[in-house]
Amino acid sequence: MNSLKGYLLIATPELIAAVFTRSVILMIDHDENGAMGVILNRPTDATTSDLPEEIVGPEFDGNKPLHLGGPVSGPLMILHALAELADREVLPGVFLTLDSTKARELLVSKAEPSLIVINYSGWGAGQLESEFDRDSWLTLPATLDHVFDGREDDLWKSVVGQVSARKLSDFLGVRHIPPDPTMN
What we know:
alpha+beta, 184 residues, 5-stranded antiparallel beta sheet, 6-stranded mixed beta sheet, VC0467-like
């Protein structure tokens, strides 16, 4: 089994679950026991100012959007670029923090780049693989730019284009396809 940790899962039109429509998921864990990731392009109407005082403290004045990571209830998670406040590295330069003390420090300092996520997407053993059999997902190695893109509406379209270009490049044996092939 090849782990998809550090990859993007990109929803295809065949995927009918509404929460995943046009979603781009950063895979945080993937092994024979299951998989876990967070949707990158689902900002909510809630902001960090809506977080309980126990999480951010009484004097907090943030207003950064909270993102919906998926349909599974879970802890507040912060994706960021500060190794010293990380619980683990998801991919080079992108770190995950779940620890409440470190999360508070990230929130209060308004660390950037960051993505604040509530809930997550999870799959039991073999479940994600069966979704691949139904052509529900495309994959692409994730980059720091994908995670902290900030253009939630355009992220899905952008990564679908990258997957298409990569597949075409592999098929044709071409090393680089320019953004506008007519400029060749």
